[in-house]
Design a protein that fits this description.
Largest sheet: 4 strands, antiparallel
Shape: elongated
Oligomer: single chain
Strand content: 15-25%
Number of strands: 6
Order of helices and strands: HEEEEHEEHH
Distance between the termini: 49 Å
Structural class: alpha+beta
Strand order of the largest sheet: 3-4-6-5
Radius of gyration: 22 Å
């Protein structure tokens, strides 16, 4: 394998990994039946004149399977944190006890599980599109090498096969992540 192909494939791998990481982050915000500190990751709190992630004003813990607790570091921010969680669109109803906010996770209804599965499918399609976009860039670069007569047509075929093989592997991984998340969501 030539140094140019190796370098190109490494760049494509790095970018496809970025698409996978983005998908994992999106999935972490989708609530399944179990409590996870990642569930509150998208929550933003108005604090000190700006909007900051919840993780900058308190720590999230999972004391039991269907309960999250948020220990707010600054007493004056307990109200804004509770309000941010309530208005986050996650369907959560927090209760305050001193500087700790208890966030019970309600049982998911079948309708809500189906909505979450559809959202996971949308996120997955976005990841597939991102991976395919990276593949297209790689194919274009390979064709550019061939047009400049830096590689032969046979080499171009070999390069495009390598790029497609890499892409197929990442698409399989994306599909596996979706299957795992759907199984997690559907689990009662």
């Amino acid at each position: 394998m030539s140094a140019e192909l190796t370098e190109l494939l490494e760049d494509l791998k790095r970018r496809m990994e970025g698409a996978l990481e983005s998908l994992r982050r999106d999935f972490s915000g989708l609530r399944s039946g179990r409590a996870s500190p990642n569930l509150l990751e998208p929550v933003r709190v108005e604090a000190y004149g700006s909007v900051v992630p919840l993780s900058q004003v308190g720590s999230v813990a999972v004391p039991e399977a269907r309960m999250l607790t948020v220990s707010v570091w600054d007493q004056s921010l307990v109200g804004p944190v509770e309000k941010a969680i309530r208005n986050s669109g996650l369907g959560l109803n927090p209760a305050t006890e001193g500087q700790t906010i208890r966030v019970p996770l309600p049982q998911l209804t079948e309708e809500r599980r189906n909505e979450l599965a559809k959202a996971a499918a949308r996120y997955t399609e976005g990841a597939r599109i991102a991976v395919r976009g990276v593949r297209r860039d790689g194919m274009d670069k390979a064709k550019g090498f061939e047009k400049k007569n830096e590689i032969s047509q046979d080499d171009l075929k070999s390069w495009t096969d390598s790029i497609q093989k890499l892409t197929n592997g990442y698409i399989e991984t994306v599909d596996k992540l979706l299957a795992d998340k759907e199984r997690d969501i559907k689990q009662v």
